[in-house]
Amino acid sequence: MEEFDDIEQQIRKIIAETLQIDEEKIHKDSSISELGGDSLMALMLITSLETQFNITISDDDAIKINSFDSAAAVVKKLMNA
Fold first, then answer.
1. What mean pLDDT value characterizes the chain?
2. How many CB atoms lie within 10 A of CB 67?
3. Does residue 38 carry a catalytic annotation?
4. Residue 24: inside a domain, yes or no?
5. One of 38, 60, 61, 69 is an active-site residue; which one?
6. How confident is the model at residue 69 (pLDDT cuts 50, 70, 90)?
7. Does residue 58 form part of some domain?
């Protein structure tokens, strides 16, 4: 079973709420599109991540967010900046 740290658990919850899916379907290697996300949902996800973690995601970083892992990497990078 996969282990998620606190930040990853929060991101997992945000993705589940944004895509309206069960958190259990989200794995570390899950892509947003495979989970049913589209470009509008991606924008909603980015906004939710910014709000939840009090960060600002640049356009360059936003483009990188296409999976759970990439979302976690961007959030963690910005929180440690």
1. 96
2. 20
3. yes
4. no
5. 38
6. very high
7. yes
Q: What is the pLDDT of residue 81?
A: 84
Per the listing, tokens 């892509």 go with 31
69: CATH? 1.10.1200.10
**Number of Cα atoms under 13 Å in the Cβ half of residue 56:** 1
- Contact between 65 and 41 under an 8 Å Cβ cutoff? The reply is no
Q: Determine how many CB atoms are found less than 10 A away from the CB of residue 60.
A: 8
Boundaries of domain holding 65: 6-19+29-79
3-state SS class at 7? helix
**Cβ contact 12:68 at 8 Å:** yes
Quote the CA–CA distance of 30 and 80 in Å, as a whole number: 24
Which residue, among 30, 32, 65, has the nearest Cα to 46 in the 3D structure?
65
Q: If DSSP codes are grouped into helix, strand and coil, which group holds residue 64? A: helix
